Amino acid sequence: MKKLSIISLGWLGAEVYKKFSKKFLCSGSYNSSSKQIENEYFFDINKRDYPLEVDEADIIFFNIPPSKIENLKSLGLFFERIKSKRVILISSTSVYEQEGINTEATPIRAKGARAQKQFEIESLLQEYVKDFLIIRCGGLYGKERHPGYFLSGRKDISGGLDPINLVGIDDLISLFDKVLDSSSEKIINAVNTNHPRKSDYYKSFCIDQSLEVPSFKMELSSNKIIETQFKDYKIASQLP
Predict the structure, then answer these.
(1) Helix (H, G, I), strand (E, B) or coil at 51
(2) CA-to-CA distance for 153 and 213, rounded, in angstroms?
């Protein structure tokens, strides 16, 4: 049985651990506090102290937000250390800053600091690791964690006419099940194919959840739509 190590065990990482603990020998890292699961280990990506679980893994699921990575040079050294493994990097569709429809074939022209750092991390991975897969996720939601709860009751939210680019955690886990062990693709956009207007979607969500309905400025601040060009990885489930 192959060994899968998850860096790190946040919300998404913990779900990956639960899903794949029967298919792989799973381990996972924490940084701030123990997750109280089997085969967990402490790991700080900004220090050069690499746990045994990382060295012994066949597959690395890299799930650290860019904001937690202080030193890209240290990250490059880490990627060099794991260059012989299969590495899945969880990235974000925030790297696409241009308007219109964006697929994996769209050139990245990141200008904002966040998008630039995310793209630099992707580039570092590609420089050192041969067997890699970058998954660029849309806005992630789940039953208990949904942006609609945050927007409920707010007034005059900008971009009410903007299309949304979301992905449910269950759909994302299903995608991982297809690609974690092997895939011929190198970059996949993980986004639902449904792109309703922001105002329509969140008003409907709040009504369905018996929450206070937010109000929006009926303006178009961005017409960015993220799609995948790979038919086997399209996510077309009904948005909640």
Answers:
(1) coil
(2) 5
Amino acid sitting at position 188? I
The residue ranges of every structural domain in the chain are: 65-140+166-193+226-233
Q: Which of 81, 171, 97 is nearest to 135 (CA)?
A: 171
Closest CA to 164 of 204, 113, 222: 222
In 3-state terms, what secondary structure has residue 89?
Answer: strand
Give the model confidence (pLDDT) of 116-174 as tens digits: 999 999 999 999 999 999 999 999 999 889 999 999 999 999 999 999 999 999 999 99
Measured distance CA(220)–CA(234) in Å, rounded: 26
Kindly state the DSSP code that residue 24 receives in the 8-state scheme: S
- Give me the residues of the chain with pLDDT under 70, please: none
E strand or H helix at 28 = strand 25-30
Q: Residue type for 222, please?
A: S
Query: CA angle, 214 as apex, 210 and 112 as ends, to 5°?
Result: 125
The second-level CATH assignment, the architecture, of 65-140+166-193+226-233 is 3-Layer(aba) Sandwich (3.40)
> What is the spatial distance between Cα 10 and Cα 29, in angstroms, rounded to a whole number?
9
